Task: inverse folding
């Protein structure tokens, strides 16, 4: 249809430009009081020494789940913001340092540990911290409804002797090498508020920040604890944690100056920030979990160790780290990060990419003609499964991909109904090696998804767990044996240790993480 | 009229009862349950069993169903397993946010659509016409998750005029709240605006070719007056029909836009509820949706009955 000549001059180029100008002016109206300025993270800059004040703005992919307050989750954790722990590991290793406990004494038989507690600590509600709060913290983790992954270690605590309000002895059923893992994991919360806390209403701890407001799906605001037991800390006035449930939007939030720190992004997501000098990509040395290829050992021929080892040789771990993890990972056949006491280069490289050797092992096991197996994976993370599928096809193992949504994946994992193969992630390899075997279900010696049972493996796990001194030669030998057992049996084929990396603006300084990836902001500040 | 209403009510209630049962059953047919989510990562079977018992998920199916219905009838739809808050509060807050987003998008649609349509119909010259045509086509064809990212890139990252995402209450702080609303509402409004623009463009062009326009022009009526007073009103009726469909599309598109702009609305709540098997939340949301449809249907029937006596008498 053509325009009537009478109206043909209604819109000219000049009027179009005028219209665009008017639109821009309308947008300018928004500038009367700007949400951008209100949101803006303090500008990057250099200033010697810490600066007091400011609100740290954190953007995270997922909201807090109050019911999971006492578990380790994959997303930004408030464990060391609102709470404290009894001890904390020194950076780069597993050397326990005082926090709410100032000293400790392990009994010669390893069946008790006496703790001396700080006397100058109060909860956010003003109540003093005492030994009774340690009793409650342990019993809280023993409660299965708290979903605490270190429950097995908490259950090893069988009794309490309170000598004074600030001195307590924990009696143990047997020596445990990972008692300090428990102390770093176990947050000290006010017992009178816990039932409210798991509903997201009244979360009370002794930590550097006080729970202020939580708007589900939107944000959590924490304010500086003016009575914090560490003098002059924290430097920050407040922490605002915003939920941005989409990786691109999370990056935009950082680039637009709306946030200082982004949590929950994968290595590939942060690629756009790698060359940008306005941001620091903070890498933490404890890793943030592992990706693995799970094997159902009840499915023939995966009951044959040689077939499992063949699969391990067939996967190109370096390619997975480079392409699926954006380079942020350590290709390793062993689960341990480099800061683990049991890590060795030899173990990490125990199964180098070697299709020829994989084919030879398959042939030796009587499967030179190839195999056809199902491979389940999390529908939200298909990249690793696709790469594994390609690699296995090169050695004659054809796989059929079966995507599972997270809830179904988890259900099948626990119900031991996974198909022959699956790809997934696990945690708990960054602490004492025994913690992996007693706290991460895929490695549990009594019952695991792989349906793998072996009395010798059970004996090694128990020996690695039940040492009196976690740093003794006997303990170290048991850890090494545990590592060898995992590498030899290959019911879980570890592929890579995930590098824990968080993008942040250049002016954010001295952020730390504990061994469970909980962010520590005691010394953090925003440079002016 | 009362008799007619009494005849219609039982069937409406039956639909609600059947829907409640279907919703309850279908959710439980999906593999995985809230206990697996509440158990965190690397959980043990003991932990999951304890949580399942605590939530009452180990009770017989019908016992769980009647317990839920009983709570509903007493006015308590329960708590979210995962978020912890009362469902009435959660839905109330999120409903307000989604409504604000939908109204914002509708307003933008009603402003941008007619402007673009009239400009397209009256544009002169190759460049403006091509430009407007391209704007219209891009708005219509590019999915919201792409336009959303582009809008954020331009207005939040490059020019830093508006926040890239998030939410602040418009009631509490209208100036700041509106700035948070602009980008998601614009993203949601663009496809609908393009549809309206096309209808208006065709309608205006058709009207401008009519004899009465020529007559008016020959009588000296200004071009602007003819366009706004005569041509545009004649182009509007078909737009009203299409507007109804676009409002439905707004609610569907809101799910994606809410995720993209971290806008805490009902779509985001439903998406999280389904993904994490938060039964009470999803049940309440779906039943609310059915309830709204049943109510609208009932109101439509009543309107028919009021307009046509044969309906209420027959």
Result:
């Amino acid at each position: 249809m053509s325009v009537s000549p009478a109206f043909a001059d209604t819109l000219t180029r000049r009027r179009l430009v005028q219209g665009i100008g008017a639109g821009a002016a309308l947008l300018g109206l928004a500038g009367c009081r700007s949400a951008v300025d209100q949101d803006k993270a303090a500008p990057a800059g250099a200033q010697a020494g810490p600066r007091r004040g400011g609100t740290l703005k954190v953007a995270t992919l997922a909201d807090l789940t109050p019911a999971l307050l006492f578990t380790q989750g994959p997303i930004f954790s408030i464990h060391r913001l609102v709470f404290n722990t009894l001890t904390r590991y020194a950076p780069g290793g597993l050397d326990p340092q005082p926090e709410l406990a100032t000293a400790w004494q392990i009994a010669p038989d390893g069946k008790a540990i006496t703790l001396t507690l700080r006397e100058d600590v109060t909860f956010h509600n003003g109540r003093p911290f005492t030994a009774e709060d340690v009793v409650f913290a342990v019993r809280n983790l023993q409660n299965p409804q708290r979903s605490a992954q270190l429950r097995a270690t908490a259950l090893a605590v069988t009794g309490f002797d309170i000598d004074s309000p600030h001195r307590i002895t924990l009696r143990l059923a047997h020596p445990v090498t990972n008692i300090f893992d428990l102390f770093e994991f176990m947050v000290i919360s006010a017992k009178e508020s816990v039932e409210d806390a798991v509903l997201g209403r009244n979360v009370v701890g002794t930590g550097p920040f006080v729970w202020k407001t939580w708007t589900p799906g939107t944000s959590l605001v924490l304010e500086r604890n003016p009575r914090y037991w560490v003098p002059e800390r924290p430097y920050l006035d407040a922490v605002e944690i915003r939920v941005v449930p989409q990786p691109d939007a999370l990056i935009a939030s950082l680039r637009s100056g709306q946030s200082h720190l982004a949590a929950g992004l994968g290595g590939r997501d942060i690629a756009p920030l790698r060359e940008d000098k306005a941001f620091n990509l903070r890498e933490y040395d404890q890793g943030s979990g592992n990706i693995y290829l799970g094997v159902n050992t009840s499915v023939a021929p995966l009951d044959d160790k040689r077939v499992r080892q063949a699969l391990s040789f067939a996967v190109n771990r370096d390619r997975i780290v480079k392409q699926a993890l954006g380079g942020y990972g350590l290709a390793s056949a062993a689960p341990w990060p480099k800061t683990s006491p049991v890590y060795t280069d030899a173990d990490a490289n125990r199964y180098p990419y070697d299709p020829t050797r994989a084919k030879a092992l398959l042939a030796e096991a009587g499967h030179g003609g190839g195999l056809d197996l199902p491979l389940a994976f999390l529908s939200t993370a298909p990249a690793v499964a696709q790469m594994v599928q390609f690699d296995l096809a090169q050695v004659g193992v054809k796989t059929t991909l079966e995507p599972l949504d997270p809830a179904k994946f988890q259900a099948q994992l626990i119900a031991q109904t996974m198909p022959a193969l699956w790809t997934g992630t696990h945690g708990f390899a960054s602490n004492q090696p025994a913690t992996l075997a007693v706290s991460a279900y895929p490695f549990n010696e009594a019952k695991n998804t792989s349906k793998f049972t072996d009395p010798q493996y059970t004996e090694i796990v128990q020996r690695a767990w039940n040492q009196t001194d976690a740093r003794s030669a006997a303990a170290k030998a048991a850890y090494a044996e545990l590592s060898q057992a995992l590498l030899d049996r290959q019911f879980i084929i570890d592929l890579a240790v995930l590098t824990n990396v968080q993008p942040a603006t250049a002016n954010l300084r001295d952020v730390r993480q504990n061994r469970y990836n909980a962010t520590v902001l005691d010394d953090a500040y925003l440079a002016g | 009229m009362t008799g007619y209403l009494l005849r219609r009510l039982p069937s409406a209630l039956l639909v609600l009862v059947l829907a409640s049962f279907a919703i309850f059953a279908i959710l439980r047919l999906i593999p995985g349950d809230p206990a697996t989510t509440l158990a965190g990562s690397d959980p043990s079977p003991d932990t999951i069993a304890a949580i399942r018992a605590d939530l009452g998920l180990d009770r017989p199916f019908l016992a769980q169903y009647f317990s839920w219905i009983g709570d509903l009838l007493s006015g308590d739809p329960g708590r979210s397993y995962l978020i912890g808050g009362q469902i009435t509060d959660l839905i109330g807050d999120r409903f307000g946010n989604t409504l604000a987003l939908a109204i914002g998008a509708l307003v933008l649609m009603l402003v941008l659509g007619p402007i673009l349509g009239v400009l397209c119909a009256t544009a002169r010259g190759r460049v403006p016409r091509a430009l407007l045509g391209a704007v219209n086509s891009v708005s219509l064809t590019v999915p919201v998750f792409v336009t959303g990212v582009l809008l954020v890139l331009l207005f939040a990252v490059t020019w830093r005029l508006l926040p890239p995402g998030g939410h602040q209450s418009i009631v509490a702080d209208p100036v700041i709240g509106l700035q948070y609303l602009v980008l998601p509402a614009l993203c949601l409004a663009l496809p609908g605006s393009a549809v309206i623009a096309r209808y208006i463009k065709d309608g205006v062009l058709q009207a401008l070719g009519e004899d009465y326009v020529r007559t008016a022009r020959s009588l000296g009526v200004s071009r602007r007056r003819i366009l706004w007073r005569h041509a545009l009103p004649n182009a509007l009726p078909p737009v009203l029909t299409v507007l109804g469909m676009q409002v439905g599309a707004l609610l569907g598109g809101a799910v994606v836009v809410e995720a993209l702009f971290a806008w805490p609305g009902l779509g985001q709540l439903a998406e999280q509820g389904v993904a994490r098997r938060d039964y009470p939340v999803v049940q309440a949301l779906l039943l609310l949706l059915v309830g709204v449809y049943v109510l609208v249907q009932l109101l439509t029937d009543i309107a028919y009955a009021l307009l046509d006596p044969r309906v209420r008498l027959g």
